[in-house]
User: Fold this.
Amino acid sequence: MATAVAIGRHLHIAGATVHKHLEHIYGKLGVGDRLTAVLAAQRAGILPAAGARARNGGPMPRHAGPATPPGPGQPP
Assistant:
């Protein structure tokens, strides 16, 4: 499992911000940890079940993460 700091680095936010977002998610789902949050979200239809297939029969698409900002001298 990725740490809050590692998730924060990937999303370009502080680890403390990740913790705060997780606390809000846990509260909304009525759970206390990530595994239970994932299971609750799958039961609620918020997340696809493990091994779920897309409508075209292929695997569910993965989120690519944040867009890379343009470099110096490149248009936005």
